[in-house]
Amino acid sequence: MKNAFKPLFAALFAFGVGFGTVPSASAADAANDALVARGAYLAKAGDCVACHSAPRGKPLAGGLPMTTPLGAIYTTNITPDPDTGIGRYTEEDFTRAVREGVAKDGHNLYPAMPYPSYAKINDEDMHALYMYFMHGVTPVKQANRESDIKWPLNMRWPLKLWNVVFLDKGVYQNKPAKDVAWNRGAYLIQGLGHCGSCHTPRGIAFQEKGLDESNNAYLTGGVLDNWFASNLTGEHNTGLGRWSEQDVAVFLKTGANPHASAFGSMTSVINNSTQNLSDADIAAMALYLKSLPASGGNGGPQYSYDPKATKVSLTRPAATDSGARVYTAFCMHCHGVDGRGFAPMLAPLAGNPNVLEKDASSLINVTLNGTEDLVIHGIPAPYPMPRYAPVLNDQQIADVLTFVRGAWNNNTAAVQPEDVAKIRKATQAAR
Ligand code: HEC
Ligand code: HEC
Ligand code: HEC
């Protein structure tokens, strides 16, 4: 993840019990290794590396800037180096930092660290994570960087009040009415996966509007860092209503399916986190997501594909529609006359949930800036979306996206050149 926008407030050794004898060193080591390996897996599910590593920096040594309206803050070194990292953290210190957002020395962390989600991680998993961070991560000596936020806005005590109001300290509790897989999926999505930190809209104090399915704003989509993270409820047009559980699973494993391909801040989630999870865990996450009733959406009638009118305007590109002209010249060879792309390599635009979403931030951003490569099992995507910022002006991008949002029965509102200008400016500043 590059430079994620985070608003201000968003801005032991119990192995080898033995059988009446002292366990051998090797049995103890094996149990220990298994625990460290389990912690490594959980760290992937939590995507700790995406935020706690700077571009081209050492993994987990921190230093990634996260921009806020008041200035950048930097992620910290969470390797076990005793002086600059978390080597002196006891398990209790670590648990408090991860669940409650309080560092060893007592200062409150900005909720750019997703502790409101991690609060749901259970004790057993927290223990495995701690073992991994202490024994499975190579220590790196690299001092933390002070935030660029100036006094008095850099004072952290208001975060204590924020926590009183918004932090729900409870570890995830299984719902007895639901089966094991549903509960496993809910636990991973709400907790370690912290999917809501991007996919749930934020309220007035930048808190996520809901931390689980009991709130109907939960996972209905939100903007962070100039990307709109899609609606993940069962909503027909903009959500996962037309996706099967299998479609969701394939997307999380490979970053693409017949409906869409990953781009923007989702790319790093797939590159670093979900592609590494077991099939059983991915299936559980898909099952949980597909259980969420429709919520949010664009208010339009249920989408169904209709290429007719669009085909006509595209086969006569000299026509009056300037958006159709840009589309024919720059986009059609990849996304197709029929808007269906060539899934899963080239994303369809017809009926694509992100295209149908009211908020066009993601569409503007991906057209301006393309996207970071999706890398599955070490292999980068063959035809990534190009960057058009140097080629097309704000009006042309607004025109082509307005065309795309109207074509193939997409029927979604026009995009304004001012909106393109805003995102161009914000994303260029971040480069
Ligand atoms: C979305 C970004 C993000 C993710 C994901 C994330 N962190 Fe953090 N983390 C941060 C930021 C930002 C800070 C520093 C906040 C501050 O300075 O107020 C932080 C601070 C911490 C600290 C306090 C360290 C110190 O020196 O004060 C610990 C411990 C920590 N994170 C552990 C983890 C673990 C373990 C994971 C994965 C399970 C994780 N983080 C995932 C953003 C993230
Ligand atoms: C750092 C922000 C971020 C996090 C964390 C995140 N996502 Fe996303 N996600 C996005 C963005 C932005 C999009 C829209 C772009 C795209 O479709 O890839 C997206 C898209 C998706 C889509 C495709 C939806 C569609 O209609 O195209 C799925 C499914 C998804 N995310 C699932 C998840 C799950 C499950 C998690 C937690 C394990 C998660 N995401 C965590 C940012 C995020
Ligand atoms: C070289 C092939 C190529 C060209 C040309 C191209 N795209 Fe893309 N586009 C992609 C790919 C591939 C993706 C999926 C994201 C990725 O993997 O980079 C994508 C994704 C998108 C998305 C997000 C769709 C989703 O999955 O939700 C939009 C919107 C988009 N393109 C619009 C355009 C527009 C507008 C143009 C012309 C100005 C264009 N593209 C030209 C390959 C292309």
From TrEMBL:
Cellular localization per UniProt: Cell membrane
InterPro entries: Cyt_c-like_dom, Cyt_c-like_dom_sf, Cytochrome_c-type_DH, Membr-bd_ADH_cyt_c
Binding site for heme c 2: C195, C198, H199
Keywords: Cell membrane, Heme, Iron, Membrane, Metal-binding, Plasmid, Repeat, Signal
Keyword Signal (UniProt): yes
Gene3D superfamilies: Cytochrome c-like domain
Cofactors demanded by this protein: heme c
GO cellular component: plasma membrane
Sites where the protein binds heme c 3: C331, C334, H335
Pfam families associated with the record: Cytochrom_C
Signal peptide: 1-27
Binding site for heme c 1: C48, C51, H52
Entry's Gene Ontology molecular function annotations: electron transfer activity; heme binding; iron ion binding; oxidoreductase activity, acting on CH-OH group of donors
PANTHER family: ALCOHOL DEHYDROGENASE CYTOCHROME C SUBUNIT, BLL4482 PROTEIN-RELATED
Protein name, UniProt field: Gluconate 2-dehydrogenase
